[in-house]
């Protein structure tokens, strides 16, 4: 989900459904004495996963159409002309974060299957949900969309390189990379971006409506997907080893920290720093799930699929909660500042009135003020 809320591969879901149905009787016979939690993971709830897949596609359309209506050609051109922010994000996503994930994986002393999942997750940057969080955190929306598009395109070449460099001891030779979903996601993103910008140009009056739809409908879809994920994989909360919880919390925070520090070091403004940190903190979990579905046998999937789903749940939930808290805090500060400014303006207007008033009228004004105060008291 998380960035899990990115475009999923419907063909992967369909293949998974067929495999599950064909092997359900066999698995039930074999697993009668096994933990029912394992059975639950092995026979995934296909209907719920399909619902998440369709909601993800709707979310992609809603987010890109609504947020791209706030992006201008000049903003995109400016970031391309001065690509410092884009370069920082790409270097962090493709080089620094995989290296940090490899070090974290080695220091955690976890089994090979989970180590492989950490490596795959760190090698899959991007995700359209990062643009939504960049908007909610007052980041640079045009930069976020550019980074997401460029990282999705480059991941088709850099992802296998990272897996080859860091994963030669983790049986990465048989991994099937999701080139088709990545290419489709890139095409959809660019198409929706151009469509949103054209709507802004031709029909500027609908901008506010698109923004409201993107804010509220997008947030509602995210919450629904989180709930559906819990229903589909309730065992992810207690069937994942404790060591992996530390990795799940550390890896996204590591991306956030590295992205923000590097952007600060290169003297980027605060919206750019926020955007780079968010982009580096989120990963493309649907790509990870597609790799698992296409690369491993059903029994192996049972041992591997809970980790990315739990990673997706915790990162998406965390970002959503902090986004809501940030918006509430921003509204509180806005109303507080507005109230202070209104009282300050009233005082300034009164003083200006006294200063600009003719000298011969000042005693009369002062007498009226004093009489009003006396009468009120």
Automatic annotation (TrEMBL):
Pfam families: SBF. GO terms for molecular function: bile acid:sodium symporter activity. It is found in: Membrane. The keyword Membrane applies. The keyword Transmembrane helix applies. One of its GO terms (cellular component) is membrane. Keywords: Membrane, Symport, Transmembrane, Transmembrane helix, Transport. It is a multi-pass membrane protein. Gene3D superfamilies: 1.20.1530.20. The chain crosses the membrane at residues 54-73, 85-104, 116-137, 143-167, 179-201, 213-232, 244-266, 306-328. Belongs to the bile acid:sodium symporter (BASS) (TC 2.A.28) family. This is Solute carrier family 10 member 6. It comes from Trichonephila inaurata madagascariensis.
């Amino acid at each position: 989900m998380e960035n899990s809320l990115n475009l999923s591969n419907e063909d992967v879901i369909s293949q998974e459904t067929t495999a599950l149905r064909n092997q359900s009787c066999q698995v039930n016979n074999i697993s009668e004495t096994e933990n029912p939690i394992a059975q639950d993971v092995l026979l995934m709830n296909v209907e719920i996963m399909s619902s998440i897949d369709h909601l993800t596609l709707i979310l992609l359309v809603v987010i890109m159409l609504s947020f791209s209506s706030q992006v201008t050609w000049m903003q995109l051109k400016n970031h391309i002309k001065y690509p410092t922010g884009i370069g920082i994000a790409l270097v962090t996503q493709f080089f620094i974060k995989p290296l940090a994930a490899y070090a974290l994986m080695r220091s955690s002393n976890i089994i090979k299957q989970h180590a492989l999942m950490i490596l795959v997750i760190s090698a899959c940057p991007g995700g359209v949900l990062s643009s939504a969080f960049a908007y909610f955190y007052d980041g640079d929306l045009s930069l976020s969309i550019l980074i997401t598009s460029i990282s999705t395109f480059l991941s088709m070449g850099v992802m296998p390189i990272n897996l080859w460099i860091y994963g030669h001891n983790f049986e990465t030779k048989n991994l099937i990379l999701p080139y088709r979903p990545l290419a489709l996601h890139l095409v959809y993103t660019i198409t929706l971006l151009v469509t949103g910008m054209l709507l802004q140009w031709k029909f500027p009056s609908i901008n506010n409506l698109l923004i409201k739809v993107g804010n509220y409908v997008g947030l509602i879809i995210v919450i629904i997907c989180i709930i559906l994920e819990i229903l589909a994989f309730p065992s992810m909360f207690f069937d994942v080893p404790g060591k992996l919880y530390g990795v799940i919390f550390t890896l996204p925070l590591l991306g956030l920290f590295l992205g923000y520090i590097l952007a600060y070091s290169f003297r980027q403004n605060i919206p750019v720093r926020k955007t780079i940190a968010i982009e580096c903190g989120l990963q493309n979990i649907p790509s990870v799930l597609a790799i698992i579905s296409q690369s491993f046998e059903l029994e192996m999937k049972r041992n591997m699929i809970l980790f990315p789903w739990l990673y997706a749940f915790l990162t998406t939930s965390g970002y959503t909660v902090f986004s809501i808290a940030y918006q509430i805090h921003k509204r509180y500060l806005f109303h507080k500042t507005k109230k202070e400014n209104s009282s300050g303006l009233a005082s300034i207007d009164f003083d200006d009135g006294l200063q600009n008033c003719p000298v011969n009228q000042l005693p009369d004004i002062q007498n009226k003020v004093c009489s009003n105060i006396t009468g009120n008291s």
